[in-house]
Amino acid sequence: MDEFPGALGTSASLALRLGQAIFAVASLLFMCLDIQFYSYTAFCFLVTIMGLVIPWSLTLAMADAFSVFVKRPTRQPGLLSIIITGDWVLSFLSLAASSSTASVSDLLMTSNVSFCTAKSCTRYQLSAAMAFLSCFLSLASSLINLWLLPTA
Amino acid sequence: MDEFPGALGTSASLALRLGQAIFAVASLLFMCLDIQFYSYTAFCFLVTIMGLVIPWSLTLAMADAFSVFVKRPTRQPGLLSIIITGDWVLSFLSLAASSSTASVSDLLMTSNVSFCTAKSCTRYQLSAAMAFLSCFLSLASSLINLWLLPTA
Questions:
Q1: How far is B30 from chain A (nearest CA, A)?
Q2: Cα B84 vs. chain centroid, distance in angstroms?
Q3: How many CA atoms lie within 13 A of B6 on its CB side?
Q4: Tens-digit pLDDT string for chain B (152 aa)
Q5: N or C, fewer C-beta in 10 Å, chain B?
Q6: A150 CB contacts (<8 Å, ≥6 apart)?
Q7: Cβ atoms within 10 Å of B24's Cβ, excluding its own
Q8: Which candidate from B96, B110, B150 shows the least CB-CB separation from A99?
Q9: What residues in A contact B44, CB-CB < 8 Å?
Q10: CB contact under 8 A, B41 and A107
């Protein structure tokens, strides 16, 4: 089972981690650049969670890249459990953050009082969409590693 | 492992299911009674998800009650997988719904334009809190059953 695609230390896992990091960075950029996001709690929450997801995914991407390109380290069940738990918690938190952002931006867009211009509203929504994608990739990593935990 | 508290068919599982159903009903009542919830997408989402959680939890509560009070049926791994998946999907959806509701009600409460009276805003928040509790209980059920799946 060592070469199961998506397990820790394979190239599929590296791709998943890079995808998570890229979507999280995109979400952060859409949210932060030129927009006063700190006036809404939900947007601050999204920025906080994406700020946690990026270092986590990049660290694991580096571990995967080392494992793919240099040499395969021994896989320890304890380490795998920590990674599964972390992925899971982060995917839960990013799901909460992205759904909050999506609903708030939807509310801002449809309400009669114009809180945001059409351009910034679209950027809020794009940010939420990127956060959803990052969340789903994180969940995929967690599920694949959880699946492999009994055979580790 | 048959008597592990919280596994399918034990009295702890019955308590968890009843808790989920009660919190979901409370969330639905806080949201629906006397409030025009259908003017906000997030609130409609919450009502939909809670409407899914209630029959699911009540069905499983009945199965647990049958197992506790009458006789213990044989536990099938296939059935357990379906229940774990269902719990997990519902807990994810209810997490998304409750965080959307919480962020929207927070936004409605703090915005300068008064969208809702203080009483209805508090009720939105209470509804979101109940949905969070239901979500966490659902997650607990899912995790306990997942833990026991390899020994089933």
A1: 19
A2: 14
A3: 16
A4: 456 777 777 888 899 999 999 999 999 998 888 777 777 888 889 999 999 999 999 999 998 888 888 877 667 778 888 988 999 999 999 999 999 999 888 888 877 666 677 777 888 889 999 999 999 999 999 888 888 877 76
A5: N
A6: B150
A7: 30
A8: B96
A9: none
A10: yes
